């Protein structure tokens, strides 16, 4: 921590970001701040300063310092109708902790990176980089546990050090202040999005008046990750300063329009029609169910359960006494609930099967402790740079004894009429693997996490192109 005091001015280093990406000085291009220059920007509460203590090809660090004036802050409180004669307006923790002031500074100083713009290195915007973040002092109104609950589901590794109220009087207990280190391989834009949203959430306070513009800010900086976060409700509530009407507007904005009674309102593509004619989807589900049943599992997860078709097969097997379906889409979970008749289910059935909302790129303790898990045509919907986070969530944290995963075989696409070279089978696919690529990924993943893996095809076999779907069975080693 760097802390300087001079008359009314107080300065603290609130944020340091370091990368070992090669060349590490690409960080300067992403932030739009040259490593050789000390730069400052006027803010409503003082100044923000940016400099690079280290800028080498193998390691680069940037520091953001805020210069804040407690008297100016007190005057701003008074301008909003709060009496400025109170001592707390002059003596408080605002100049010393990461809070909504840091979020404001990020948006004003690193605005281009926060919004995914990089004129000189546009290809870097979405690239996952090894990043380390140092937050010397944050305030967490929820303790260390809340810090972990907010950041660990997003894939971060954390170093947390708590601070006592007074080192000379340990009997006074711990303070709400912590020093935090974050480690992740992630795009810089995503990292800044997380910090922008979560700093005021931890503090449970904002230094400015909250209006409807905050809904747009939250949508812009969290729409691609908040839906699957286990603490989404708390994040939304705290970020919007407990304004229930704003929270309802935000949640409504996350919902995608859907035709009543339809699981997929879009017209089916030729490829989807072809799969239907082959009965491929049902064949996949039946095979996955058979493999899970043969494993002897008593508890099963359907990750990315969609409308609940696999869940319905699993429920019919009395072998499974605990079944959980997870999906990122609330609408899909509603469809699954209707398919499983959960509204009118008996207490015993409701105890046996559960539907939860979540995403496969966020650590979720609810997924741990299951005998078996299934991922049916799900992984190809993830952006490639999210595969590392997915791998940690499923194989490192959830760690089912057996996992059955299916994904399209890209080689088979040549047999789909009207599917041109280089096009994916479905519009929402982010990638499709050949058999060799799938086996390479699966073997490497199994090796990293102490699993063994075997492969098979699903659907009619072509001598040259194989089967339309490929399947891997991961079994955890003893």
Question: Can you describe what's shown?
Answer:
With 478 residues, this protein is of the alpha+beta class. Helices cover 33% and strands 24% of the residues. Helix 6 (188-203) crosses helix 8 and helix 7 (213-222) crosses helix 9 (244-254). The radius of gyration is 25 Å and the shape is globular. The two termini are 45 Å apart. Residues 1-7 and 256-271 have low confidence and may be disordered.
Quickly describe the structure.
By secondary structure, the protein is an alpha+beta fold. The chain contains 16 helices and 15 strands.
Fold topology:
Layout: E1 3-6, E2 9-19, H1 26-31, E3 39-43, E4 46-56, E5 59-68, H2 70-79, H3 100-109, H4 111-114, E6 129-139, H5 143-151, E7 157-164, E8 174-186, H6 188-203, H7 213-222, H8 232-239, H9 244-254, H10 270-278, H11 280-294, E9 299-303, H12 309-315, E10 322-327, H13 330-339, H14 347-352, E11 353-357, E12 372-376, H15 387-398, E13 402-408, H16 435-448, E14 451-458, E15 469-476
Parallel strand pairs: 9-10, 9-12, 10-11, 12-13
Antiparallel strand pairs: 1-2, 2-5, 2-6, 3-4, 4-5, 6-8, 7-8, 13-15, 14-15
Helix pairs in contact: 3-6, 6-8, 7-9, 11-12
- Uncertain segments are 1-7, 256-271
Percent strand: 15-25%
Helix content: 25-40%
Tally of DSSP helical segments: 16
Query: What is the overall shape?
Result: globular
* Overall pLDDT metric: 84
Give the class from helix and strand content and strand pairing.
Answer: alpha+beta
Q: What value does the Rg take, in angstroms?
A: 25 Å
Could you describe the largest sheet, including whether it forms a barrel? Answer: 8 strands, antiparallel
| N- to C-terminal distance | 45 Å
| DSSP strand tally | 15
